[in-house]
Specification:
The complex is a heterodimer of chains A (about 800) and B (about 45).
Chain A (H helix, E strand, L loop, with lengths): L1 E2 L6 E2 L5 E2 L8 E2 L2 H12 L4 H5 L22 H5 L2 E4 L2 E9 L4 H13 L3 E7 L4 E6 L6 H10 L3 E4 L5 H39 L3 H22 L1 H12 L5 H22 L5 H32 L6 E7 L6 E7 L8 E4 L8 E6 L2 E4 L1 H4 L5 E3 L4 E2 L4 E2 L4 E7 L5 H15 L6 H26 L4 H15 L2 H21 L1 E3 L2 H7 L4 E5 H5 E12 L4 H12 L5 H9 L8 E7 L3 E6 L2 E6 L1 H6 L6 H12 L3 E7 L2 E12 L3 H10 L3 E5 L4 H11 L3 E3 L4 H13 L4 E5 L5 H6 L2 E5 L4 H6 L2 E3 L6 H35 L5 H20 L12
Parallel strand pairs in A: 20-27, 20-29, 27-28, 29-30, 30-31
Antiparallel strand pairs in A: 1-2, 3-4, 5-6, 6-8, 6-9, 7-8, 10-11, 10-12, 12-18, 13-16, 13-18, 14-15, 14-17, 19-31, 21-26, 22-23, 23-24, 24-25, 25-26
Chain B lengths: L1 H26 L8 H5 L5
The chains are: A alpha+beta (about 800), B mainly alpha (about 45).
C-alpha cells in the first residue's frame, strides 16, 4: 500500500496513478490529485507538503465536476458579489479545507492570480473573502482557481441564515462583554460595601459606593439585559411566561429596590443583578455559538445544485440540433434537453431519444439502476448512467417529483410542534408560583405588623433568589458541551432539542440503500464453466473496462490487476449487457435474455446455479465467449462495515430496530438477515416510510430514523429525531436533526448515549436548581437572606451546575460512553 | 474621600479603555476566526 502523494489516502500500487515524467517516483490516488500536485510544483507552492500538519488523509473535493476547466458559471456567484471601492468583493464557502495549510495554499495561490487584490480565508468558518478587479477577472474565474486546487467554492449569499446567526452571536457577545466589564467594576465597589457590612462603614462612603454601584448596574439591566426584558414582555403578552419573565422579574425588582435603598441608605443588591444578567448572557452566547457552528458545518455539506441544463434547438438551415447551456429556471415544458452520461437530470421529462440507465435511488430508495428508453419518464435530481438521453421536459422547478417531496417535507416540518424544552416546561409552571409566593410574603409581613419597607425587602428577596441563574447557565452549557463532544466524534447536532429528543428514543428505523448498505453492488460470486475464476474475471474486466455501469466498477474492483485484453467493437446495451471482440472472438456479458437475443443458449444446469443466486437476492450476469457460456457473475449491494455491529449494539441497549427500503422483498430479506434485523418493510415509497414512522409513534414508540436520500426525508421529518448520513443528499441533510459527518454507522448508538447523558445532566441540574430554590425561597420569605448571602449562594449554585455540565466532555476519543 | 473617588474614577477609565478595545476587536472581526491566526503567525513571509 502506497499513499497518494497529494491527499495521503492509501492506494494500491497496481491501480495508483503514476506521476508525470519529471516526478515518476510519485504515486497518486487519482488524476485529480496528480494535477493539483503538478500545479503546486509549477507555482512553487510545494512547500505545502512540508508545512502541512494535522492533515487527515482524504481526497480533495472536486465538487463532482460542477466547475469546469474554464471556471464556474459567473451567474451562479453573481448574488454574492458586492462592490467595494474600485474593486468587487465576494464571500465564498469552501469545502475540502482540512488543515491550516489549506488556508495558506488558497490565499497564496489566489493572491498570485492576475486581478486579485486580496484574499482572506477564515479557518474557523471555511469562508473566503476575495477582492478583485472586475476588469481583470470575474467570480467564475475566481471559483475556477479555487477548484483547480481541489476545493469546491460555493457562493455565500448575504442575508442568509448564516449571516443572521452570526449577527445574533455578535450582538450577544457585545452585550455579554459589556456586562462582564461593568460587573467587574460593580463587584469591586460591592467588595467595599461587604467590608462595610462586617466592620462598619461611614455614611457618606456608603452612599457614594451605593450610588456608584447603581450607576454601573443601570446599563447592565437595560442594555445587556435588554433581550430578557424584550422576551419577558413577549412572554407575558403571549401568556407563556418562560425563563425570560423570571429573569426580568428578578433583575428588575432587585434593581429598583437597590435604587430606592441607595437613596434611602440601605443595602443594595447590585452585585446580584450584575451576576444574573452576565451569567445568563454567557449561557445564551454559548447556545448561539453552538447553533451557529452546527449550521455552518451543515452548510458545508450541501453542494452546488445542478443549476444548468443543455437545451437543444434546431440549427437554422442545417436541420441539425445544437445545445445551449441554460439555467434550469429557463426551461419550459416541451423543451428538448440533452442529458450527457454521468450527469444529474435537471428536470422531469420523457425520453425521446437514446437509452441509458438512471440511478433513482435518492428518490425511490431502490438501488437497482432503472432502464430508460424512448417513452420512459425521468426525474429531476436522479443520476444518468452511461448513455446520452434526449428528454422532452414535462415539469421543472416546483412541479418536479423531487420538489413535491421537498414540499411535503416542508409542510410536515411546519406542522410538527417544536419539541418542548424540559427547562421551559418546568419554568412555565414555576413562574406563577414564584409570583404568588412573593405577593404572599409581602402580605404576610404587612399582616404581622411590619413596616412596608421590610415587607418589600422580603418579597424582593424571594424574586431575586428564584431567578433561575443556575438554570440559565446550566442547560445551555450542558447542551453546548454535549454538542461539542458530538461534533468531535463526527456528529453534527442542530440544536439542544435534538439531544433532548434523542434521549427518549425507543425505536431505531434504518433505511437500507446508502445507510445500511454501500448503495453500490459488490461482486459476490464468479463461477466459471470450464475456465478458471481468474480467467473469467479477466475476460469480464476487459469487457467492462470501458463501461461506466455500477456493476462494471464491482467487477473491476474484484478482478486481479494486470494484463487486460484488448477489446474491439465494444458496445453497451443499457439495462442488458455489454459485448466486444477479444482476440477475434465475440464475448458477451449480460442478462440471460441479452445472451438469448444474440443466439447463445444457457444449459439447464447453469440456469439452476444462476436461479439460486437470483433467489438469494443477487443480480446475475452471464459471460459467453463465442457461442459458449463460460461463467456466471453475481453481485449484491453489500452491508456497510459496522452495520452488523450497529444492529447488535442497538438491540443490546434495548432499542427496537426496523429496516425500511424501497427495494423488493428478496433483496430486503437478505440484507435484513445479514444485518441481524428481524423486522423490515420492502417496497416502501417515501410516503410509506413516513407512514411507518407515524404508525410506530401512534403506538407509543419514540422513533429515530437514519437515512440518506430524498426518499427518506419525509420519514426523517416525521420521526422524533432524523439522522442523515453526511454523504446523503441535501434534502436529507436539511430535514435531519443530526448529521453523521464521519462515515461510521456506530455513531448512531454514540449519539443516543450522548443524548441520554446530556439529558441526565440537564435533569440533575434542574433538580439542583429547584432544590436550591426550595430551601432559599422560604428563607428569603422569612427575611433571612441578606444580599451578601444571596450573591454567594447564587455563585456557588452556578458553579455547581456548570461543573456538572462539564462532565459531558469526552475524556478519551473513541470511548463509547456510559 | 477624594482619594477614593479619584481611584474609582481611574479604575472606571481603565475599564472603559479595555471595553472600547473589546468593542473594536469585535467590530473588526477578530473573534470570527480564533483558530487561523495561531497558524498564520508561522508563515515566514
Amino acid at each position: 500500500m502506497a499513499a497518494c502523494a497529494h491527499c495521503l489516502l492509501p492506494v494500491r500500487q497496481e491501480i495508483a496513478v503514476r506521476g508525470s515524467a519529471d516526478e515518476p517516483g510519485l504515486r497518486f490516488c487519482c488524476a485529480g490529485c496528480r494535477n493539483v500536485h503538478a500545479l503546486l510544483r509549477r507555482e512553487g507552492l510545494d512547500g505545502f507538503y512540508v508545512r502541512r500538519t494535522g492533515w487527515t488523509p482524504g481526497p480533495p473535493d472536486f465538487g463532482a465536476g460542477a466547475i469546469g476547466s474554464n471556471g464556474a458559471d459567473p451567474d451562479a456567484f453573481a448574488a454574492c458579489v458586492r462592490k467595494s471601492g474600485d474593486a468587487v468583493e465576494a464571500d465564498m464557502a469552501i469545502s475540502g479545507i482540512r488543515c491550516a495549510s489549506c488556508v495558506w495554499l488558497i490565499e497564496r495561490y489566489l493572491g498570485k492570480r492576475a486581478g486579485v487584490r486580496s484574499v482572506r480565508v477564515n479557518y474557523a468558518t471555511h469562508r473566503a473573502t476575495v477582492r478583485w478587479d472586475p476588469a481583470a477577472a470575474d467570480a467564475g474565474r475566481i471559483a475556477g482557481w479555487i477548484a483547480e486546487l481541489g476545493y469546491t467554492p460555493r457562493p455565500v449569499e448575504p442575508g442568509g441564515t448564516d449571516d443572521a446567526l452570526r449577527a445574533e452571536k455578535r450582538d450577544l457577545m457585545v452585550r455579554f462583554g459589556t456586562a462582564a466589564f461593568l460587573s467587574s467594576q460593580v463587584m469591586m465597589v460591592t467588595a467595599g460595601l461587604y467590608a462595610g457590612t462586617f466592620q462598619g462603614i461611614e455614611g457618606p462612603y456608603r452612599t457614594f459606593f451605593n450610588l456608584l454601584a447603581v450607576f454601573l448596574t443601570t446599563p447592565i439591566v437595560f442594555y445587556s439585559g435588554f433581550p430578557f426584558l424584550k422576551g419577558a414582555v413577549a412572554g407575558i403578552r403571549n401568556r407563556t411566561p418562560g425563563m425570560d419573565v423570571l429573569i426580568a422579574l428578578g433583575s428588575l425588582s432587585a434593581y429598583l429596590y437597590s435604587v430606592a435603598m441607595a437613596v434611602a441608605g440601605g443595602d443594595v443588591y447590585c452585585d446580584t443583578v450584575a451576576m444574573i444578567v452576565t451569567l445568563i448572557l454567557l449561557g445564551r452566547y454559548l447556545e448561539a455559538a453552538a447553533r451557529g457552528r452546527a449550521t455552518a458545518s451543515i452548510a458545508k455539506l450541501i453542494g452546488l445544485a445542478p443549476g444548468r441544463a443543455r437545451r437543444l434547438r434546431e440549427e437554422s438551415g442545417a436541420g441539425g440540433l445544437a445545445a445551449d447551456t441554460v439555467p434550469v429556471a429557463a426551461l419550459r415544458p416541451g423543451d428538448a434537453i440533452e442529458v450527457v452520461p454521468g450527469s444529474r437530470i435537471p428536470a422531469d421529462g420523457r425520453v425521446t431519444a437514446g437509452s441509458s440507465e438512471a440511478d433513482q435511488s435518492m428518490l425511490t430508495g431502490e438501488s437497482r439502476p432503472i432502464l430508460k428508453a424512448p417513452g420512459s419518464a425521468v426525474y429531476a435530481g436522479t443520476l444518468n448512467g452511461s448513455g446520452r438521453l434526449v428528454v422532452a421536459v414535462t415539469g421543472t422547478g416546483r412541479e418536479t417529483a423531487l420538489a413535491r417531496i421537498v414540499q411535503a417535507v416542508e409542510e410536515a416540518q411546519s406542522r410538527k410542534a417544536p419539541i418542548e424544552r424540559v427547562a421551559d416546561a418546568v419554568v412555565r409552571r414555576f413562574v406563577p408560583s414564584v409570583v404568588a409566593v412573593a405577593l404572599l410574603t409581602f402580605a404576610a409581613w404587612i399582616a404581622l405588623g411590619h413596616p412596608a419597607a421590610t415587607a418589600l425587602l422580603a418579597s424582593v428577596s424571594v424574586l431575586v433568589v428564584a431567578c433561575p441563574c443556575a438554570l440559565g447557565l446550566a442547560v445551555p452549557l450542558a447542551v453546548h458541551v454535549g454538542s461539542a463532544s458530538a461534533r468531535s466524534a463526527g456528529i453534527l447536532v442542530k440544536g439542544g432539542d435534538v439531544l433532548e429528543a434523542g434521549a427518549t428514543v425507543t425505536s431505531v428505523f434504518l433505511d437500507k440503500t446508502g445507510t445500511l448498505t454501500e448503495g453500490r453492488p459488490r461482486l459476490t460470486d464468479a463461477v466459471g464453466f470450464g475456465v478458471t475464476r481468474t480467467e473469467l474475471l479477466r475476460i469480464a474486466a476487459s469487457l467492462e473496462a470501458s463501461s461506466e455501469h455500477a456493476f462494471a466498477a464491482a467487477v473491476l474492483r474484484e478482478a486481479p490487476a494486470g494484463h487486460r485484453a484488448e477489446v474491439a467493437d465494444f458496445r453497451a446495451t443499457p439495462g442488458m449487457g455489454v459485448e466486444g471482440a477479444i482476440r477475434g472472438t465475440r464475448c458477451l456479458l449480460g442478462r440471460e435474455d441479452f445472451l438469448a437475443a444474440r443466439g447463445v443458449a444457457i444449459a439447464p444446469g447453469q440456469r439452476a446455479i444462476g436461479g439460486a443466486m437470483s433467489e438469494a437476492g443477487k443480480s446475475v450476469a452471464w459471460l459467453a465467449r463465442g457461442n459458449e457460456v463460460v461463467g456466471i457473475l453475481a453481485s449484491v449491494d453489500t452491508l456497510r462495515p459496522g452495520a452488523v455491529d450497529l444492529v447488535a449494539r442497538l438491540k443490546e441497549n434495548g432499542y427496537g430496530v426496523m429496516m425500511v427500503t424501497g427495494d423488493g422483498k428478496g433483496v430486503a430479506a437478505r440484507i435484513a438477515a445479514d444485518a441481524g434485523i428481524g423486522r423490515y418493510r420492502a417496497h416502501a415509497a417515501p410516503a410509506d416510510k413516513a407512514a411507518a414512522v407515524r404508525n410506530a409513534r401512534k403506538a407509543g414508540a419514540r422513533v429515530l430514523f437514519v437515512g440518506d436520500g430524498v426518499n427518506d426525508a419525509p420519514a426523517m421529518t416525521e420521526a422524533d429525531v432524523g439522522v442523515a448520513m453526511g454523504r446523503g443528499t441535501d434534502v436529507a441533510i436539511g430535514s435531519a436533526g443530526a448529521v453523521l459527518t464521519a462515515d461510521d454507522l456506530l455513531l448512531v448508538p454514540r449519539f443516543l448515549s450522548l443524548s441520554r447523558r446530556t439529558m441526565r445532566v440537564i435533569r440533575q441540574n434542574l433538580w439542583w436548581a429547584f432544590s436550591y430554590n426550595a430551601v432559599a425561597i422560604p428563607l428569603a420569605a422569612a427575611g433571612r437572606i441578606t444580599p451578601v448571602v444571596s450573591a454567594a449562594l447564587m455563585a456557588a449554585s452556578s458553579l455547581i451546575v456548570a461543573g456538572n455540565a462539564l462532565r459531558l466532555r469526552e475524556r478519551t476519543p473513541g470511548e463509547p460512553g456510559a | 474621600m477624594w482619594t477614593i473617588a479619584l481611584l474609582v474614577f481611574i479604575s472606571i477609565v481603565l475599564a472603559a479603555g479595555a471595553w472600547l478595545l473589546f468593542l473594536w476587536a469585535v467590530k473588526s472581526d477578530q473573534y470570527d476566526d480564533v483558530e487561523g491566526p495561531k497558524h498564520r503567525m508561522m508563515d515566514d513571509d
